[in-house]
Structures are given as C-alpha cells and as structure tokens.
C-alpha cells in the first residue's frame, strides 16, 4: 500500500494545480491556432508545445536545479539550500526562490552545486533557454536568416519609403509611454525596463522583441513573445479596419509607377553603409543590425551561395525550433498568469494599431510635397511583419482598383520597418542601460 501511495504522490496528477491546467490549455490553443488556422505556425507550434512541457507538474523541465530541489518539498533538501541563501527553511519556496534570484553570482553557483550534489539537475527547457535566448544567440541568428531572405531592391528603388518604415515605429515609443502611464497610475507596476521591452512589440518583429526582452525583462519574455507573434499572425485582421479608417476610396485607388531596376553593386554596398553609419551612431543596435546586414550581404554578393542558402533554410529552421521551445519555457503558470500579462496583451494591440495608423498618415502627409503620389496603404507595411503587412497593403489596393498592384512598393517600407525596429531596440537598450 505504501508503494501505491508513494507512486500517487509522485504522479503529475497529484501535483497538478489550476494554473498549470490553464496554461496547458493555453498551449493547446496556440497549437490549434498554428495548425488549424495557420497563425505563425513556425513559431507557435514549438511555443505551444514548449508551453505544455513547461507546465507538466513534477517534471521541472523549465526550472533550474535549485528550483527543482526547492519544489521537491523535502525538508532535508530545502534546509541546506535555504541556509546557504541566508533564509529560514520554513520561509517558503517562493521566498527562498526569490532569495536565489537576487543572490550574488558566486552564491548562485554554490547553490547550483549543492542542488547538483543532492541529485537535482537543470530542466531540459531551462538549458534550451540559457543556450538559445539567455546567451542572445537565437534572435541574432534568426535576424541573419531574415537578412539573407530580404531584398533591399524596393527600398533602394524608392528611398522615400524609408520614412514610412520609420514612422511606423512610433507605435513602439507610444507603447512605452502607455506602460509607464499604467505604472504611474498604479494600475499595473511596470519598471522602465519592462516598459521598453513591451514597447518593442509595436515593431511587429518577433526576434527583436525576444532579444530586447531577454536583456531588459526576461521574466516577461513569454508574454511579450506570445503577444508579438500572435499579433503578427493577426495582421490581416488588425490592419485593414485601421487602413480604411484613415484613407479615402480615392486614395486607395492611387496607382504607383513601376520601380526602377536596382543594380547589384547598390545592393552590395547598401548593407555595408547602413551598418557602419548606424553602428557608429548607435553601437547598441550593432548586434541585431549587424547580423541582418551580414545575412543580406551573403545573399547579394553572389560568391557564398552555400552560406546564404544555409542561413535562409537549414540554420534558421533549426534555431527557430529551439527558440520556440525556449519561449515556451517562460509560459510556466507561475510566471505567465499575472496581471502584467493582460497589460502586455492590451499594450501590444494598441502598439500595432498606432504603428499602422502612423505609417498611413505619414504617407498622406508626404503626398502634400511629392509629385509622384504614394498610395497611403503602403504606409501600413512600415510595421516589420515581413511580408504579411505588404500583402495586406496589396490586397486592399486590389480591392479598390483591380489593376493596383502594390506588393513590391509595399516591400520598401516593410524592409525599412525591420531596420527601424532594430534601431529602436538599440535606442531602448541604450536608454535603459544609462538609467540603471
């Protein structure tokens, strides 16, 4: 009988709490949206699966060795770790875990060694997170792959669209102010680092959002990543009403002239000039923009086809798997089910709306001064959801005028948005670093 009781006490069902059950349902919902609805499946499938894995009670897949030891519940395990961290053994698991997180690096290392000696190890997803996101490697490699798949031709053929990509980044800074406002009014307590990390959702760039969150607010990374990729998948639903609201029927019918042919030399030189100019002014943007430009240079130089093909396909696919599972590890119930998550989701949708509106309004403003009119619909593509935002612009253009093909024109601000979000990320990291 004792053996049956021990088996029952060691089972996941015995340890399952309502929060873990809810988050497992959230994981299943993400998988449903990815598989059945086609919403960003490359990311939402591994994120959803990682969410389920991280909420399996008793498995500790997303926990460190110390956390696994503490959540074991054995007094002879908790006592020595609590003593090492300067806490009482009866202080509670949450208090001891908080002491571990705020302890000096040397004390954390000693606690990990003690937990290892007691027979506990880091969870699988915890290790994935440290290697892929904690080190910052995965978002940077994804940016390199995106660069290798990007054609700067439409942007170089119509440089004015760079302003549309820049204008759409206003959603980032507006969201930061919104997060600060929520904190000031006492509704939700966001630090300035939290606000900066949340704001990047407005750039509609998943890897950038993950990179900034991993540096400024790692505890919010799961909610920020889910919000960023979910809203990117919902671009065809979020953007059209805003685009119609701020444009007239006549403006949506504006036809744009065919783009000029961009030479190979221009395409090779542009990423080099872009990187050098931006990095000299804003070094904190160099990692993201550097990998993006490097990937693009491999694509355009024509002498490293194998490397370019690897960056565009095999490498980015492998990294995406581990990135998604690592983000899923941050969807554990204890970390995700928090009022801050709701605030992040609300601020994220507001950021997308503001970015879309600013891109459209900037295009309308530019039409006051240019001879060749810009269709304001392409301004919405300034959010860097590549290439989905450009496709939405093209779709609405064709609805207004069946001969109005805007896809290549919209790719200009779309690519500019990727550059803009990387620069905005550098600005956020630089400002927050100077304040702390």
TrEMBL record:
It catalyses: oxaloacetate + 2 Na(+)(in) + H(+) = pyruvate + 2 Na(+)(out) + CO2. Its cofactor is Na(+). The chain crosses the membrane at residues 12-35, 42-66, 128-150, 162-188, 268-294, 314-332, 344-363, 415-435. Its EC number is 7.2.4.2. It is a multi-pass membrane protein. It is found in: Cell membrane. Pfam families: OAD_beta. It comes from the Bacteria. Keywords: Cell membrane, Ion transport, Membrane, Sodium, Sodium transport, Translocase, Transmembrane, Transmembrane helix, Transport. Belongs to the GcdB/MmdB/OadB family. NCBIfam families: Na_pump_decarbB. Catalyzes the decarboxylation of oxaloacetate coupled to Na(+) translocation. Heterotrimer of an alpha, a beta and a gamma subunit. PANTHER family: OXALOACETATE DECARBOXYLASE BETA CHAIN 2. This is Oxaloacetate decarboxylase beta chain.
